[in-house]
Design brief:
alpha/beta, Rossmann fold, 24% strand, 7-stranded mixed beta sheet
């Protein structure tokens, strides 16, 4: 069984990778994700000659958007650990000469130090067991005064209204706990401070929806409920009743769920300022 919380780090071994591709397409179609992405591009502020690194490029849409901002004199290097993601991204947009796709590990970036004017990661560190190492690598490959921009959810903020309270608590906790780094959102500002980045800005971005069918796609609610049952978090009766209660809440206009992510940015300092 493929789960969205734990499966993005092993897409190439999935029996149905389209589950992950479909999830990314759904997220990218939603105004919440479109809005914070635009903010992240603005914070990165690429110029016509910028060299930008996109860590965890997924299906490549963000890399293409930044390449359009840069034009022909700069370029975007888009790296991902999944060969299937890279192939999909290249087939969709990789024929643009200003986007270069690369298969690689975020914790061991195959680039020299100070190779880029900026680096960006979007919902990537949550899928890495050692996100601090990946972030340190991003800092290493960015030049002095270069910008770093990262958005990450904090799954400790995930809430659901609808269904029995204790069961909802168990479901949201399990979803967060099955990410390799489910609390990365709250840890991210410290990463920037520990690397002594300057002009650090922290922007909370809260996603909300009262659409149960959308929540099922985005938060994998049905699969997560059955996983909770198998792992002993809840009984079979509790899992089935919870899903039924969510549907009833939705039909009566009472369903609601939400989480908060954090968009963090900063400059790499000059050596003389360290």
């Amino acid at each position: 069984m493929d789960y969205l919380s734990s499966g993005f780090s092993k897409v190439d071994g999935s029996q149905d990778p389209d589950v992950f591709f479909s999830c990314l397409r759904t997220l990218c179609s939603l105004p919440y994700f479109q809005n914070y992405k635009k903010k992240s591009f603005q914070l990165l502020n690429p110029t016509k000659c910028s060299r930008i690194l996109e860590v965890g490029c997924g299906l490549g849409g963000d890399a293409s958007a930044m390449a359009e901002m840069i034009g022909g004199r700069g370029y975007v290097v888009a790296i991902d650990t999944s060969k299937k993601m890279i192939e999909n991204a290249y087939n969709a947009s990789g024929k643009e000469g200003s986007v270069l796709y690369c298969l690689g590990d975020a914790c061991r970036l195959p680039f020299r130090g100070s190779a880029f004017d900026g680096a960006r990661a979007d919902r990537v560190l949550q899928h890495i067991a050692d996100p601090r190492k990946a972030f340190s690598e991003m800092v290493r490959v960015v030049r002095e005064r270069g910008r770093l921009v990262v958005y990450e959810p904090d799954w400790g903020t995930f809430i659901i209204n609808g269904g029995q309270r204790e069961v909802s608590r168990a479901m949201t906790q399990l979803f967060g706990d099955t990410f390799p780094s489910g609390w990365i959102g709250r840890q991210l500002p410290d990463f920037f401070r520990e690397e002594r980045l300057e002009n650090i800005q922290i922007r909370p971005e809260t996603f909300t929806t009262d659409d149960l069918d959308l929540a099922i796609k985005v938060f994998d609610l049905i699969n997560n409920a059955h996983r909770a049952e198998r792992m002993g978090y809840v009984s079979e009766i509790q899992a089935d009743s919870w899903l039924e209660d969510l549907r009833k809440a939705h039909n009566h206009g009472h369903f609601f769920c939400s989480y908060t992510g954090f968009l963090v940015s900063g400059y790499k300092p000059t050596r003389s300022s360290i």
